[in-house]
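Researcher: Watch the backbone:
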Amino acid sequence: MLKKLLIFIVFISLNINAQCAMCKAVIEGGNEAVAEGVNNGITYLMVFPYLLIGLLLFFLYRHRKKTNS
């Protein structure tokens, strides 16, 4: 189940673009390359909190599984 969910999230997140309101307002007058660079940077920064939470949940799951055995 967890493996299927992870694969689903990976495929969905390949096409996601993120942009905050302030960044959008700043780059609206710029060219498309600048806009895409800012968008990629925001997405890159957004990934790390999710990775940390995922690692925490993985280690909690592993610890609970070990204590129940």
Observations:
- Residues 2-68 form one domain.
- The longest helix spans residues 32-68.
